[in-house]
Design a protein that fits this description.
This protein is mainly alpha-helical and 42 residues long. The chain has 3 helices and no strands. The longest helix has 15 residues, at 4-18.
């Protein structure tokens, strides 16, 4: 059985890797450049 410390370290590592995952994925797929409509109006 894993020690308490190992479990905690694993949880922390997982949490760090997970943080911002949705936002980063959204930026990758959608990008951060504003659309023509947002920049210049319709």
């Amino acid at each position: 059985m894993a020690s308490k410390t190992k479990k905690t370290e694993f949880r922390r590592r997982r949490k760090v890797s997970k943080s911002g995952r949705v936002r980063k994925a959204k930026n990758r797929n959608k990008g951060t450049t504003k659309s023509q409509k947002e920049l210049f109006g319709s």
